[in-house]
Amino acid sequence: MLITNRLKEINKKISSNLSLVAVSKTRNNKEILESYKSGQLMFGENKVQELTKKYEELPKNIQWHMIGHLQTNKVKYIAKFISLIHTVDSIKLMKEINKRAFNENRNIDCLIQIHIAKEKNKFGFKIHEINDVLDLARDFKNINIKGLMGMGTYTDDLDIINNEFKTLNCEFLKRKNFEFDTLSMGMSNDYKIAIKNGSTMIRLGSSIFGKRK
Ligand SMILES: *Cc1c(COP(=O)(O)O)cnc(C)c1O
């Protein structure tokens, strides 16, 4: 019941037009099913192998989101079922997603991942590249770019995170309505700052399922 209660508390606190992605990486089917039974349908995974296994084993109306770095050679394993890819971080990847989506006779919704954090090891395009990426994306008829995704710096300094999220929201707002409807930002440690800065989709793992081992 712990997971159910945590989910209830979170849903009470957030507005109903904010999307909640339950980040289920490393969690087992039992934990995922508990949250599913309490109404959670969107789940996020960061590894293709784990994601495809869970897709096979769990209810088919779950909406699976890819939230981890995606290698080009693995797109084919998720193309038929993935509901949103948050982590488009290269043109090569975009091209491959488009090709595999075409083969599956569908369109795949994607977010452009933007590098806003101080850490060098995080993935994503730079802010000044967004327009070029969007221009190129227009040629890829089988992907829909729905918006932007970003991860804040992992730090206790809330001002740093606040500024990063503010910057990303500014880019989102410039293109909202005619192109974008989704701004994916905010994890367990920083989702309140993300919501304050216009996030439309938060990705929570540990605040729903508890600490990861
Ligand atoms: C793991 C992960 C999350 C969730 O992290 P928590 O701190 O457990 O909420 C969100 N987004 C991405 C991209 C992740 O890899």
Q: Report the top-level CATH class.
A: Alpha Beta
User: What distance separates the N and C termini?
Assistant: 20 Å
Strand content: 15-25%
Task: Kindly report the spatial arrangement of strands forming the biggest sheet.
Answer: 7-6-5-4-3-2-1-8
The CATH topology turns out to be: TIM Barrel
Please, how many helices? 9
Going by helix content, strand content and strand pairing, the class is alpha/beta
Give the integer mean of the pLDDT values.
96
Secondary-structure element string: HEHEHEHEHEHEHEHEH
* Biggest sheet record: 8 strands, parallel
Approximate helicity band:
25-40%
Approximate shape:
globular
Q: Would you identify the regions where 5 or more consecutive residues have pLDDT less than 50?
A: none
CATH superfamily: Alanine racemase
Number of domains: 1
CATH architecture: Alpha-Beta Barrel
The radius of gyration computed from the alpha-carbon positions, rounded to a whole number of angstroms, is 17 Å
**Which ions, cofactors or small ligands are bound in this entry?**
pyridoxal-5'-phosphate
Number of strands: 8
Compose a concise summary of this entry:
By secondary structure, the chain is an alpha/beta fold. Helices cover 39% and strands 19% of the residues. The chain has one domain: TIM Barrel (Alpha-Beta Barrel), CATH 3.20.20.10.
Any key phrases for this structure?
eight-stranded parallel beta sheet, 213 residues, TIM Barrel, 8 strands, alpha/beta, binds pyridoxal-5'-phosphate, 9 helices
